[in-house]
Write a structure and sequence with these properties.
mainly alpha, about 70% helix, about 0% strand, elongated
């Protein structure tokens, strides 16, 4: 069974771009404060994007699935 190819579209690309830009924009989070549970901002910003990236990938996947 051949499946019709789906396109991400604008919103799909945007959903996948947000985590990439957030993690690659190092000057944005290259600082020590605020500290959360003793972890400097630099580290918990990146750690926080791990589950957030999964969420954005899920949103992009839903857009592709809706298109069939």
């Amino acid at each position: 069974m051949k499946r019709k190819s789906a396109r991400l579209g604008f919103w799909g690309v945007l959903y996948l771009s947000i985590p990439c830009i957030a993690v690659l924009a190092v000057p944005l989070y290259n600082r020590a404060t605020p500290v959360l549970f003793g972890i400097p901002f630099f580290y918990w910003w990146q750690i926080g994007w791990v589950p957030l990236s999964g969420f954005f990938i899920y949103l992009a996947w839903r857009r592709v699935e809706r298109q069939g």
